[in-house]
Write a structure and sequence with these properties.
With about 300 residues, this protein is mainly alpha-helical. It has 14 helices and 2 strands. It is globular, with a radius of gyration of 20 Å. It starts with a helix and ends in an 8-residue tail after the last strand.
């Protein structure tokens, strides 16, 4: 397996893990506490990573990590849960599936990545495939829920692109950067959760087990793999792994909850998975050849996709 394929496979574990969130939330967590759930996902995981890495932001990275934490966690989690509570699950998933289109546009604006026909078509195909998997006939729409879903997708997409644009400071690993973002995002959610939902509920053993899984496996490990993937792959390639989340949720719903999967859902899985694979098959990086000096008559090539050239 090539290094790039290994990176894609590890990064894909993040949305696959996120696909289990609905099952864990409905089967293990107390109902009607979306903000508290977001807080319990983010803050314990962030504090654990801070303790493990023992690194704090320096200089401009205080505000950069706060912005990234707000986009990827602090705003994303509450908006995502608001959409999930205001919309049927299928509608919420379809609204969120427009994320790759947002990334294509933001990458063009902020990274100088010119949108290609392939990127647009794969993003549209992924959203269409997800809609076949999860959207039910007669699903109700809610303006607040749809707006929250679109804003959550935009927030995560912007976080993905800014993470790609800013990279990470020299000498700081992806694990530390993940810890900064999760901690910042958790601290943003903390006052909102207590203001809107009040004191934490009494927790059972099942609740604690569910929150432990969400915080450490579903968040700390998964976001580390996600941010590591953003660093090593293109922004559009990473975001097109997102459809693996609703596909995983549908498979878990079928296997663990007895939810039906008909021919239309299976077709949608094939389309969404095909779009995900197509999003990883990038053409070789273009190279520009410069003539060498007359003294040696050699040619020197420079990869236009290298960090030294593409800022």
């Amino acid at each position: 397996m090539s290094r790039k394929a290994a990176t894609i496979a590890l990064t894909a574990l993040a949305p696959i893990s996120w696909g289990s969130t609905y099952f864990v939330t409905t089967e293990f967590l107390p109902p009607d506490r979306p903000l508290f759930t977001g807080l319990m996902r983010a803050l314990p995981a962030g504090l654990l990573l801070l303790a493990l890495t023992r690194k704090l932001p320096q200089g401009a990275w205080w505000w950069k990590s706060t912005v990234l934490g707000a986009l990827n966690i602090g705003a994303f989690f509450p908006l995502l849960f608001l959409a999930a509570y205001r919309l049927p699950g299928g509608v919420a998933a379809v609204v969120a599936s427009v994320g790759p289109l947002f990334v294509v546009g933001l990458a063009a604006l902020l990274l100088g990545d010119k949108p290609t026909v392939k990127a647009l078509l794969t993003a549209i195909a992924a959203a269409f495939g997800v809609s076949l998997v999860v959207l039910k006939a007669g699903a109700a729409l809610d303006a607040v829920g749809v707006t929250a879903g679109l804003l959550s997708a935009l927030s995560m997409s912007a976080g993905t692109v800014f993470t790609k644009r800013w990279g990470r400071p020299e000498g700081v690993g992806a694990l530390a950067l993940t810890g900064w973002q999760l901690t910042a995002g958790g601290l943003i959610i903390l006052p909102i959760a207590f203001l809107l939902e009040g004191a934490p509920p009494a927790l059972t053993g099942d609740n604690l087990a569910g929150y432990a899984y969400l915080a450490f496996g579903n968040t700390a490990v998964s976001y580390f793999l996600w941010f590591r993937g953003i660093e090593r792959l293109s922004a559009s390639s990473v975001t097109l792994l997102g459809p693996l989340s609703p596909i995983t949720a549908a498979v878990i719903g079928w296997a663990a909850l007895g939810q039906a999967l008909g021919p239309v859902q299976l077709l949608g899985m094939v389309i969404a998975f095909g779009a995900t694979l197509a999003g990883q098959l990038n053409p070789p990086a273009k190279k520009q050849t410069f003539s060498g000096t007359e003294k040696n008559g050699q040619e020197v090539s420079m990869d236009l996709e290298s960090p030294a050239v593409r800022r």
